[in-house]
Design goal:
Mean pLDDT: 86
Largest sheet: 7 strands, antiparallel
Low-confidence stretches: none
Oligomer: single chain
Number of strands: 7
Distance between the termini: 45 Å
Structural class: alpha+beta
Helix content: 25-40%
Number of helices: 4
């Protein structure tokens, strides 16, 4: 019985070690592309983008990039969202539209819309992750 417990403890320690190493490697990466159903999504996607992604009409694709200077991360989400729904969510979340960006605290969100201006096609969060 004690050999089973030792094996189980070793297995749990190995899994914990793998998760810690994976998290460190991912967090120091300069560029990552991932989908909403990947483990990286839970590690790198800011809460603001996770909330916005719930309104996507299609499956969102994320790109994480580290940057230099006062804004250490840029996370871009590509998907289609009705512009009116996006604006309502930004307003209800406390963001203000200033100088072409939605801003709240140290977070800035830049939006790209479709050619007719009716849909948001890309959202970039610029700020600390």
């Amino acid at each position: 019985m004690s050999i089973r417990i030792i094996r189980l403890v070793l297995l749990v320690l190995a899994v914990v070690f793998f998760v810690v190493v994976y998290t460190v490697i991912v967090s120091f990466s300069e560029h990552q592309e991932y989908s909403s159903d990947s483990l990286i999504n839970y590690l790198l996607t800011p809460n603001e983008l996770s909330t916005i992604s719930e309104q996507c009409k299609d499956k969102p694709i994320f790109v994480y990039s580290s940057a230099d200077g006062p804004k250490p991360t840029i996370v871009t989400m590509s998907c289609t969202i009705a512009k009116r729904d996006f604006e309502n969510q930004m307003n209800s979340s406390g963001f203000q539209y200033i100088d072409g960006l939605y801003q709240k605290g140290g977070v800035q969100i830049q939006v790209i819309t479709s050619s007719d201006g009716e849909e948001v096609t890309s959202v970039a969060l610029i700020g600390a992750n």
